[in-house]
Design brief:
- Helix 1 links the parallel strand 1 (about 1-5) and strand 2 (about 30-35).
- The chain is built from 12 helices and 18 strands.
- The protein has 2 domains: about 1-115 and about 315-355, NAD(P)-binding Rossmann-like Domain (Rossmann fold, 3-Layer(aba) Sandwich); about 130-315, 3-Layer(aba) Sandwich (Rossmann fold).
- The two termini are about 20 Å apart.
- By secondary structure, the protein is of the alpha/beta class.
- It has a 7-stranded mixed β-sheet.
- Helix 6 packs parallel to helix 7 and helix 6 (about 130-145) packs antiparallel against helix 11 (about 320-335).
């Protein structure tokens, strides 16, 4: 059985790193990878060959692979090259695009979407979204620091005292918590919002102030995700966000609701009243953004405020991001592969969640 890895069309990352070879071979795989697939992540073809990979042309990966793994889904012209009844593992984001599953169903291939891993204790080691979100939260703060016209920590000098930067984090999920931790390490004073009751203690444990808006909808059955809130609640939230934002220098926005447009928490009016030189990093940009002015994959300036719209900051850390993705995939494959063969056990909650389209 052969596992194939392709060079990504739109990412710097690679799906499997050389250090993962031994575990994959122990599962019964022979390993095939496209030439230069890991080049942008710091993994050379020589490193892959030394680890036991066969390095080939892209067309040969399609011809050989029984299981194909990558990060960004292929276009239709390449999906048709997949072997019949093979397994293709990627990140299809069916919650964001309802047309994905109908489009995939016309191919006689088992499609598995890593972003559908359930957020349960047993599946934590496979949770790609959490792995990438943690890196994005870290990188978001560094991006903000690079664009900000002051420094983060308080400093006492002979020329005077420099006050600490005030950072506000919207959404205290994995990305938000990592942003809080990073901003605190850099010496900032941090406040955080989240609709989830469970986030309060986590925020406080990192040394940040939790800003709570009363009346949030119950989120106990949401599997760790935020849930859609009432318009009345959102109005109260926007009012309090604006009040706190006007005192902040940096805003890291991470609030998203799975399968829905991101809530707009930072209005045009808020942006226009922020201090000149302030920075907003919007990690919810791909689903509309938490800031009314956010443009996905663009950095813009409004009224002296820099707004960075980027939902994939993990790709700017391609070495570690590739390693974490590779580990997530291997942990999933250890569930999927039994005695050297793919076993589509749909009674297993993890496989059932990830298998979004099944071969005939």
């Amino acid at each position: 059985m052969k596992l194939g890895i392709l060079k990504e069309n739109h990412f710097s990352r690679v799906a499997i790193v050389p250090g993962s070879a031994k575990k994959l071979q122990n599962l019964g795989f022979e390993l095939v990878i496209e030439m230069s697939a890991g080049q942008n992540s710091g993994f050379t073809d020589i490193m892959y060959r030394d680890a036991g990979f066969e390095v080939v042309e892209r067309s040969q990966v399609f011809e050989k692979a029984d299981v194909l793994v990558n990060i960004g889904p292929l276009q239709d012209n390449e999906l048709s090259k997949l072997r019949q009844k093979s397994v293709y593992i990627s990140m299809f984001a069916p919650y964001q695009n309802e047309n994905v599953v109908p489009q995939l169903s016309k191919y006689n291939v088992n499609f598995m979407s890593m972003d559908m891993i359930p957020r349960t204790t047993i599946a934590q080691s496979m949770d790609v979204l959490s792995s990438m979100a943690s890196l994005a939260g870290y990188k978001a703060v560094l991006q903000a620091a690079n664009h900000y016209n002051n420094m983060f920590p308080m400093m006492m000098t002979a020329a005077g005292t420099i006050p600490p930067t005030k950072v506000m984090v919207l959404g205290a999920g994995v990305a938000g918590l990592q942003a809080i931790a990073t901003a605190k390490r850099l010496g900032a004073v941090v406040e955080a919002f989240d609709t989830r009751a469970a986030a309060k203690e986590e925020v406080k444990s990192l040394g940040a102030t939790f800003v709570e808006v009363e009346g949030a909808s119950d989120d106990k059955g949401a599997g760790g995700y935020a849930v859609q809130q009432t318009e009345e609640y959102l109005q109260k939230q926007r009012k309090l966000v604006q009040e706190k934002a006007l005192k902040s220098n940096i805003i890291i926005a991470t609030a998203q609701v799975r399968g829905r447009k991101a809530p707009v928490l930072i209005s045009e009016d808020t942006v226009e009243n922020l201090k000149p030189g302030s920075v907003i990093v919007d990690l919810a940009a791909s689903t509309g953004g938490n800031c009314a002015y956010t443009e996905n994959n663009k950095t813009i300036v409004k009224n002296g405020v820099t707004i960075i719209g980027n939902s994939d900051l993990a790709d700017e850390l391609p070495g570690v991001a590739s390693t974490l993705y590779s580990n997530n995939v291997i942990n999933f494959l250890q569930v999927l592969i039994k005695d050297g063969a793919v076993v589509l056990n749909e009674e297993n909650d993890i496989i059932k969640s990830v298998l979004i389209s099944k071969a005939n």
